[in-house]
From TrEMBL:
Keywords: Signal. It comes from the Eukaryota. Belongs to the GASA family. This is Snakin-2. Residues 1-21 form the signal peptide. InterPro entries: GASA. The keyword Signal applies.
Amino acid sequence: MALRSVLLLAIFLFCIAQVSSDVEIEEQGNQVVKGANRRLLSLDCGGLCKVRCSLHSRPNVCLRACGTCCLRCQCVPPGTSGNREVCGKCYTEMTTHGNRKKCP
């Protein structure tokens, strides 16, 4: 019975160690964990999208769409409109369910 308890405790501690090593708090720099041991430089999607959507007629809708596009494509075009080609194919070809351009 004691051996079983020790084994369960060891497995529990191992799982906790794995979870804590895979998750990184963003305070430690500008890196974000994407899966096990893969780190990509993160963008300030919130700040970039705030600038991008500042003149939009529906800023909340724009911010939500821009945030999704930023996370998926790792890019936000400069300015408040246009310039989509700067971010490449990912940003320019993403569409909504109604086949309209998703990214602002």
